[in-house]
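Narrative progress, year one. The postdoctoral researcher (J.K.) led the effort to move from monomer predictions toward full complexes, under supervision of the PI. The following entry was the first complex the group processed end to end, covering 325 residues in total.
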Amino acid sequence: MSSIEERVKKIVVEQLGVEEDQVTPDASFVDDLGADSLDTVELVMALEEEFDCEIPDEEAENIQTLGQAVAYIEEHCEK
Amino acid sequence: MFAGKVALVTGASRGIGKAIALELAAKGATVVGTATSEAGAEAISLYFKDAGLEGYGKVLDVTQPEQIDELVSWVNAEVGVPTILVNNAGITRDNLLMRMKDEEWEAIIQTNLTSVYRMSKAVLRGMMKAREGRIISIASVVGLMGNAGQTNYAAAKAGIMGFSKSLAREVGPRGITVNVVAPGFIDTDMTRALGEDQRAALTSQIPLQRLGEPEDIAKAVAFLASEDAAYITGQTLSVNGGMVMC
């Protein structure tokens, strides 16, 4: 079983079509990885499915980097 | 044409919705048609069976969000992810504005416009993942030209057009198209409610000199749902015998 970070990174790579080494913990999905608003919505949808957990819109707005996504999932999604 | 595709058609028990459901099914789609009553849903299942086509009739009140969620979950799990949505369900509550009641206004906005928002949202996740989708909503010539006694209906139908243009811009990058078909006066129960003189007066305004048939609308919808219409989005296709040209 891979770590949460690996699983999130894999989704980011797939959704945004970027290289794995570009997805550093602090790289911004929008500013550094070229995501548009639709990409970020899809990314959150994909995370919800992977970790089987609901991410409310207010929270989703604060998930803008790999590090933030991992932190959110560790706190709210993984039992 | 639509082999392997799942289509969802609201308000499919009779009239235009029935013609659309049968047309899509005849062209290979697996169609789920909805009606507000059990009897309506059974009628849908039966006409698919009689025609030897694959399709299901289900009960759905498009004004009830939880029913929409339930239906879409069922379709996703049991039939397949719908990549064609036809928002057809609609009602009329005609009255002059001076006499219109809030209930008449609300009923039309909820059933004819809010339902389009809710249904589209409910199927969009599946379409985004599939990277394909066709959302086609049935509006009306009345949404383009207005009609005395139908301020509520015209507002809802024109609202569908604005909604569809905006959504078309949002989801275009994912290969999903969003279009509107605006029927003129079609020979259905809705227009049979008009008197003979009214029908005659209407017909005289139509260059093609007849009311439309439900199948005239169904063919237009099938075209917009097809691969042939891949480069058409955010448009309103009028099918009205030339009654209004714009």
